[in-house]
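Tokens in:
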């Protein structure tokens, strides 16, 4: 086993992974169950971009998450589900319970004609059936694609069309605080243009009125009586697709990142165990809670797969951090005796802004480890989290990773390596980050700042963009050939600790969720009064980055505030409420080069309030517009 318990073991594994990566990753993979062993640990590199891990091996994700544990921990709690309504008691599933439910769902999928290699799309609230559903998909060899339940019908349509999903699984509705989200209605709208979907399974959750289409839509509870709780797992090649997860890019169309079975499984298992340092051998001793929605990569790797691969207890919460009041997270921690708590800096900052009495009424004495994910955390929020939630005794693992990486890449290891406020610190063994300058040359000085790249493949890396390998190659390896470019900038201190400084490309990190500027601009430009728009990220006290839109609107019958409302509605319709702009400034033009390229650097300076350092604007096609934008700036 390659578990890391102390600093010496960490340093030893760093060296092992560097000297012989094949042996290192092979030893880790042997902890898991394989129907057939691999012929080769790694083939391919960042030059040919035909990377394969554990080629020749066969395995199954659900076998490793569930069946593997039945001999030793069948009656241990695998999942604790906390409903939105605090008056409803948490629901516990043992490993045996979860196994039977997954087999039943796998049977249902098969009875509806789903086969190995078919794509199942999930558009659901945070209910156990979502976790059960994706595990059931892995059991039969189907590919799952989870779409966050806050995305619009148009966003759902685009994702279904891209992956050609055959089955859609949804709820009648989803609870979000005191609101019911009409998930099935969104699906009905989306499916008007999705001929690939032949069947829809609807899980009854909110009992709101919905439309059921005959011969297409089926209530989940009506399908259960014909399902079996014994269902053999399908052997999957290590490089067979496991899931597709869509993430925004610097062009308008979201990218379907495809992760494979073997490599992702090994990486989720290994990183969860070593970063969070849970005791998985004592019933109820450690309870892990990741607050992410399964619609995002964090909910895949560290709510579902990582904990279950390691035989731990994972918590799934349906509701909001502020419902029914801003103490809900802390109430759940005390109620369940959560030991490991993993959330986003956005949530921390939002709760930090609330009265401290919402924290002080809870003991929080069960906590051992805290974590942050999704975006860089500022020092003030780090300190508040450490002092008030961790009571100055819990290490904070400030984890840096991406949808594309599959799992954590740079992070402290709890109780093993040093935690430094707002620093991701050191890479995990087997991960080789470097800083490069704008030409792609590696910066060899230890203390440096530059663009963050990774030199060598790791098992969790996404293999391609679904249906568009050329886009994968250009997006991640086109800027600096032979290196994976993360799109992030970073600083490295004299001891080699990394601090992530944020995105350096046309992607905005809003509340830990990446949104492409082009995607938002396309949505704004659907409004008939908007000729052109440009979107940037700007510093936001709660979200980390807010969305600042500059819109050219030469003529309109609407008052500015009415137009702003319509533009926000347009973005909400096309993408979803998560992408609505915080600031909209109407301008007569955008700063452009003589070749017509928008100078976003200038707009970013305006958004940052750094208008005294705009650089030389005389070479612009329209330098006069810069003064206008500066005078009208909204922050």
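Residues out:
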């Amino acid at each position: 086993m390659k578990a890391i318990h102390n600093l010496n073991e960490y340093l030893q594994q760093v060296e092992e992974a560097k000297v012989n990566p094949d042996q290192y990753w092979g030893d880790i993979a042997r902890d898991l169950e394989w129907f057939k062993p691999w012929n080769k640990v790694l083939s391919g590199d960042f030059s040919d971009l035909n990377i394969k891990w554990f080629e020749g091996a066969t395995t199954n994700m659900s076998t490793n998450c569930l069946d593997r544990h039945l001999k030793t921990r069948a009656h241990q709690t695998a999942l604790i589900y906390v409903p939105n309504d605090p008056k409803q008691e948490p629901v516990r599933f043992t490993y045996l319970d979860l196994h039977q439910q997954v087999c039943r769902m796998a049977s249902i999928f098969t009875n509806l004609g789903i086969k190995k290699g078919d794509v199942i799309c999930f558009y659901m609230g945070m209910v156990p059936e979502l976790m059960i559903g994706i595990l059931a998909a892995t059991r039969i060899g189907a590919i799952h694609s989870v779409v966050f339940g806050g995305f619009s019908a148009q966003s759902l349509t685009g994702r279904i069309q891209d992956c050609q999903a055959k089955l859609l699984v949804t709820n009648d509705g989803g609870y979000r605080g005191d609101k019911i989200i009409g998930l099935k209605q969104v699906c009905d709208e989306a499916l008007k243009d999705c001929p690939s979907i032949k069947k829809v399974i609807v899980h009854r959750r909110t009992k709101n009125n919905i439309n059921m289409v005959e011969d297409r839509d089926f209530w989940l509870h009506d399908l259960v009586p014909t399902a079996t709780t014994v269902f053999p797992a399908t052997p999957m090649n290590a490089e067979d697709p496991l899931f597709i997860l869509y993430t925004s890019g610097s062009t308008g169309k979201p990218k379907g990142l495809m992760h494979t079975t073997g490599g992702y499984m090994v990486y989720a298992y290994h990183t969860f165990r070593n970063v969070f340092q849970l005791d998985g051998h004592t019933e109820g001793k450690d309870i892990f809670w990741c607050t992410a929605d399964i619609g995002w990569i964090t909910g895949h790797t560290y709510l579902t797969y990582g904990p279950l691969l390691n035989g731990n207890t994972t918590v799934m919460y349906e509701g909001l951090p502020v419902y029914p009041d801003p103490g809900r997270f802390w109430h759940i921690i005390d109620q369940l005796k959560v030991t490991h708590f993993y959330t986003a800096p956005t949530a921390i900052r939002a709760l930090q802004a609330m009265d401290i009495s919402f924290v002080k009424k809870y003991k929080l004495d069960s906590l051992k480890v805290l974590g942050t994910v999704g975006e860089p955390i500022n020092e003030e929020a780090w300190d508040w989290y450490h002092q008030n939630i961790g009571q100055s005794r819990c290490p904070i693992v400030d984890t840096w990773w991406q949808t594309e990486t599959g799992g954590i890449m740079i992070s402290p290891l709890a109780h093993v390596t040093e935690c430094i406020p707002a620093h991701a610190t050191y890479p995990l063994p087997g991960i080789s980050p470097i800083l490069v300058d704008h030409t792609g040359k590696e910066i060899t000085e230890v203390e440096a700042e530059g663009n963050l790249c990774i030199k060598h493949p790791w098992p969790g890396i996404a293999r391609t963009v679904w249906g568009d390998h050329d886009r994968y190659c250009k997006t991640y390896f086109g800027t600096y050939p032979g290196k994976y470019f993360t799109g992030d900038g970073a600083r490295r201190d004299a001891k080699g600790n990394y601090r992530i400084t944020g995105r350096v490309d046309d992607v905005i990190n809003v509340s830990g969720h990446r949104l492409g500027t082009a995607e938002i601009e396309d949505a704004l430009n659907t409004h008939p009064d908007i000729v052109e728009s440009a979107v940037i990220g700007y510093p936001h006290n709660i979200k980390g980055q807010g969305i600042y839109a500059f819109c050219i609107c030469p003529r309109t019958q609407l008052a500015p505030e009415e137009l702003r409302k319509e533009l926000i509605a347009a973005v909400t319709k096309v993408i979803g409420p998560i992408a609505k702009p915080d600031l909209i400034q109407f301008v007569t033009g955008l700063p452009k080069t003589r070749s017509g390229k928008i100078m976003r650097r200038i707009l970013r300076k305006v958004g940052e309030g750094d208008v005294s350092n705009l650089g030389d604007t005389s070479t612009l096609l329209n330098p006069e517009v810069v003064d206008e934008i500066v005078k009208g700036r909204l922050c």
